[in-house]
Design brief:
2 domains; Rossmann fold
């Protein structure tokens, strides 16, 4: 959700000097963020994952205990880095360490997200030894932001007193349906699905997938078997967001970016379950209100017919007359602080 905000800011502030500090690969940012920016890799981990949908609670807890073992020193080190960069404002999505450091050196900071790591950490690790101390420091850090812009749909945030609800934020792509079908040699009688699991492998065991008659899959993952019915997304000449706007259905996990992008594009969603993830219920409800279905992750992973068949039920019509395409709600980017000069963006 950060990239659309940065692009809107750059359009309004041509002289913007932008530094992005994140664990997201640079090539991913280049496709989404317009204009030049400085790139700083970081160790921000959120939660340590087994896969696209499974949290490694034990390793996550250990990572937070390590980060908070000398919290004041961690904040001081990050504050020194801020003094070197000298930003006018920090936009955090949503590392609490950056917010605490900004508060220490007096740099204005804004948090932006549909979730916060304190709430996620509490759900998975809150009963573990040492978690209470970690949570106190995390929640205090989030409370130092000038405002926490809670992008709807969002998880509840009772621990964030400075939260302000704003509308959905999503990238908008171009429907290239006819171009995609022409290049792939697919007629209108066939369906095209996009596999979008956030780049964390192995989310899907594609080598085990049976062939599904009448379906072609575009895979936005790194490991793709050589077979005629599965096409690697990066081999196609269009950005990923345009591919999303051009397919019949997106197969994914519950996640803010893909869900809101699909909603804006009027594309149906078939998603795996994400039991225990606090944000999931808030995302799934509006998804099912428009065109969404749930399937067990093990069935989606293996490509089992009883896991994939719901895609046909929720897939959008192949003639392009998609529900919600006319009069759909425009994505909203509201309430963000605007200032000329230098921005440091942490997270993404």
């Amino acid at each position: 959700m950060t990239a659309p905000v940065l692009n809107r800011l750059r359009a309004r502030l041509p002289g913007l000097r932008l530094t992005i500090e994140t664990n997201v690969p640079r090539h991913w940012l280049v496709e989404r963020v317009r204009g030049p920016f400085a790139y700083i890799p970081t160790r921000d981990f959120g939660m340590v994952m087994h896969s696209a949908t499974e949290v490694d609670a034990e390793r996550s807890h250990a990572a937070y205990l390590d980060l908070h073992s000398d919290w004041s020193m961690a904040v001081a080190n990050e504050a020194n880095r801020l003094l070197t960069l000298q930003p006018d404002i920090v936009l955090a999505n949503i590392p609490h360490l950056a917010l605490a450091a900004a508060a220490k050196v007096g740099v204005p900071a804004v948090a932006l997200c549909s979730l916060n790591w304190a709430g996620i950490y509490r759900a998975y690790c809150g009963n573990r030894p040492g978690a209470d101390r970690v949570l106190v420091q995390m929640e205090e850090a989030y409370g130092t932001a000038r405002v926490f812009l809670r992008t709807l749909p969002a998880m509840p945030m009772p621990c964030v007193p400075n939260a302000q609800d704003i509308g959905p934020i999503a990238r908008r792509g171009q429907n290239r349906r006819e171009e995609v079908r022409s290049l792939l040699g697919v007629g209108v009688e066939s369906r095209i699905g996009l596999l979008a699991f956030g780049g964390i492998d192995p989310a899907l065991a594609l080598e085990q997938w049976p062939h599904h008659a009448g379906w072609l899959w575009i895979a936005g993952v790194t490991q793709v078997p050589e077979r005629p019915d599965i096409i690697k997304a990066e081999t196609l000449p269009w950005p990923f967001i345009d591919l999303l706007c051009s397919v019949d259905v997106v197969l994914t996990k519950p996640g803010y970016g893909t869900f809101t992008e699909a909603a804006c594009a009027g594309v149906a969603v078939l998603h795996s379950c994400r039991d225990g993830w606090p944000e999931a219920p808030c995302l799934v409800r509006p998804c099912h209100d428009r065109a969404g279905r749930t399937t067990a992750h093990r069935r989606l992973r293996s490509g089992a017919r009883n896991g994939i068949e719901p895609a046909a039920a929720c897939a959008t019509p192949s003639d392009g007359n998609r529900p919600g395409r006319k009069g759909r709600r425009r994505s909203a980017v509201r309430g963000c602080l605007e200032t000329s000069g230098s921005w440091l963006v942490v997270g993404c």
